[in-house]
Design brief:
Oligomer: single chain
């Protein structure tokens, strides 16, 4: 019996030593590429858009289809004078580092698409966590984007707020003005056979900033906004603080992405996506107040 107790005691001690020598789950996460990217996260400065009227939508109908001033489709017509109350909006798109940090804080799983992207970029292309943390957060559903902003005491911008922040009061064709997009103004027109994003750091893009100082309102990542997509909404929306239709099939996506043609970078161009879609081209930024 005594020998049996000694053996059991030795086994118990060995087990305890093994448990104490193992890293905790938290340490394992911190030591992973995902944890290292999250640890380097930093937030965006906040920009204020003053209350007042701006030009929303597109009025031109007579240009040829080869002109960038020609409407992409009739969902961005007619042009309206719309009043918006003062609001705040992030200067930069939400970064991959910020999004991973939030997932950890919320004890949410990392989406498989993001796992595969990070694994590929770190192992095949040797991209560092310091670079990846500054990428825009991609493969994010609309609900995740909304939840992220709410957790930060913010919200997704309305479509009208996004458009005013992108083009200013006087209806800029692009965030930086009327000039066609070129390298240095926006990240666009890129292509990769495996859908690997070719993006810029969220805080870059000084040359293509909007009248309110926002970065990457054209290209890099297209962006979720709060509203449901309404085909004829510009013809029916109220003149003050429009908030979109009550419900729909698609949520509005604005701004074009790293893959987009120049016409999709126009500040008036609208598109939509299913709210549960994860895409290599769609990210988001937050606005406020809630």
């Amino acid at each position: 019996m005594t020998r049996h107790r000694i053996v059991l005691g030795v086994l118990a001690i060995a087990t305890l030593v093994g448990l104490l020598s193992r890293p905790s789950i938290g340490a394992e996460i911190e030591d992973s590429p995902f944890g290292r990217i999250a640890a380097l996260a930093s937030g965006s400065p906040i920009m204020t858009v003053a209350e007042g009227v701006f030009l929303m939508g597109t009025a031109r109908t007579t240009h040829t289809s080869f002109s960038l001033e020609f409407p992409y489709d009739d969902t961005e017509q007619p042009q309206r004078r719309v009043w918006l109350d003062r609001f705040d909006i992030d200067r930069d798109e939400v970064s991959l580092g910020e999004f991973l940090l939030w997932l950890q804080q919320q004890h949410r799983p990392i989406p498989e698409e993001i796992r595969k992207l990070i694994d590929h970029m770190t192992t095949v292309h040797a991209v560092s966590p310091a670079t990846l943390t500054r990428w825009p957060a991609l493969y994010v559903t609309w609900a995740e984007a909304s939840d992220f902003c709410r957790a930060r005491g913010k919200r997704l911008p309305t479509e009208a707020e996004w458009e005013k922040a992108a083009r200013g009061d006087h209806g800029n064709l692009f965030p930086w003005g009327q000039r066609p997009p070129v390298s240095g103004l926006a990240m666009f027109g890129q292509y990769h056979v495996h859908e690997i994003p070719i993006v810029a750091a969220v805080e870059s893009g000084e040359g293509g900033r909007s009248p309110y100082g926002l970065r990457h309102m054209a290209g890099n990542a297209a962006e979720w906004v709060e509203d449901w997509f309404g085909i004829d909404y510009y013809a029916t929306m109220p003149d003050r603080n429009p908030r979109g239709i009550g419900q729909g099939r698609y949520k509005v996506v604005r701004g074009g992405s790293w893959k987009s043609a120049p016409v999709l970078l126009r500040t008036a161009t609208r598109s939509g996506a299913a709210p549960n879609q994860r895409a290599s081209t769609i990210g988001f930024r937050c606005a406020g107040p809630v």
